[in-house]
What we know:
Layout: E1 8-10, E2 17-19, E3 23-28, E4 34-37, E5 45-50, H1 53-62, H2 64-69, H3 75-87
Antiparallel strand pairs: 1-2, 3-4, 3-5
Helix pairs in contact: 1-3
Amino acid sequence: MKQKKIPMRTCVITKEKYPKKELIRVVRDNLGNVSVDVTGKANGRGAYLKKSKEVIDMARKNKALEKHLEVLVPEEIYRELEKNINKK
């Protein structure tokens, strides 16, 4: 029986590859709106972060999401990311 391929994505902070389900996707749509994509299927430019408070704090500190998505990322996005990792 053929094994199903597991999609791998790279965390923009740690540069490590993880299965897509272990990461959180932040997406910028074509209007410049930034949101947390819990489905992993939203249209737009995406950036993946490891589900870790340290990684989210590092992204906030060095503005990695802003650089990757090329738009200002509001503080509410970081709070929503922290809420999502606390749910797991």
